[in-house]
Amino acid sequence: MSDASINSPDFSGRGFDGEAQFGDFFALLKPRVMTLVVFTAAVGLFASPVHVHPFVAFCAILFIAVGGGASGALNMWWDADIDAVMKRTARRPIPSGKVTEQEALGIGLALSGFSVVFLGLASNWFAAGLLAFTIFFYVVVYTMWLKRWTPQNIVIGGAAGAFPPMIGWAVATGGISIESVLMFCLTFMWTPPHFWALALFIRKDYDHAGVPMLTVTHGRRSARNHILVYTLLLAALALATAFTSVGGPIYLAVAIVLNTLFVKGAYDIWRRDEDMSETDNFLTEKKFFKLSLLYLFAHFGAILIEAILTRMGMGGWS
């Protein structure tokens, strides 16, 4: 056996690093993504008009987080082949040989069942059913179907990441309302420009993996156009949300500042000349991508502040 075969990661075994550590299994759950899931779900729960006992709320958010992690593990199980050829994902637990595909599948399925059942027991079965649908949508509809089939993968598939605030709201109210739909739409419309900006500066990764991202199938110019259009639509939605029951003057101030910056960033990307150096383009795209991370956290943070003030009798437009 050659040295290369000894040192190369093997999806059917442990690879060259020996036994997997707790951190390797935890990495399967995509903790960074889970942070956004937890936060938006918590905002959805707390912004609802129904009071939830703190212990019930804690358990509900924990089980929603576990469900989000289960989705991540199943996503890594299915995408192990393309993760291995993409520079951004090559160090993930499966392609690096630290965790096997079978382990990831087992963990993902077990945590999926656990999170749905216990969310139902802790809160209500409508919220649990919504969590189950979210896991199904992310794993089956997005990961297994859309991601490798259409350049609109992230547009349609982005719905999976937009469900957590609706789930949080459902934990408290047992249903869906216009407010939870608005929070869903805010995340849904944010997802395409966020991911297309990422795709612009890691396009070669998607090329090598054969993933039909918009940057690969229609080119960088088309992706830039789409980023600008979606950003303008997102800005209109975000500002309109200020005048709903989950908005208020603080949210409006945050939305004005952030959407001004976001639209400017999208415009800077749109006006880029494809003949310019990749370095100049990448800096603009990376700046926009980093701003997009702050964008969603800040908007939901403002919704949370408005909810707190409302409960104190000081929030909203009243």
Automatic annotation (TrEMBL):
GO cellular component, one term: plasma membrane
Pathway(s) this gene product operates in, as recorded in its UniProt entry: Porphyrin-containing compound metabolism; heme O biosynthesis; heme O from protoheme: step 1/1
UniProt entry keywords in alphabetical sequence: Cell membrane, Heme biosynthesis, Membrane, Transferase, Transmembrane, Transmembrane helix
Gene3D superfamilies recorded: UbiA prenyltransferase (1.10.357.140)
Keyword Membrane: yes
EC number: 2.5.1.141
Assembly with partners or alone: Interacts with CtaA.
Task performed by this protein: Converts heme B (protoheme IX) to heme O by substitution of the vinyl group on carbon 2 of heme B porphyrin ring with a hydroxyethyl farnesyl side group.
Protein name as catalogued: Protoheme IX farnesyltransferase
Protein's gene: ctaB
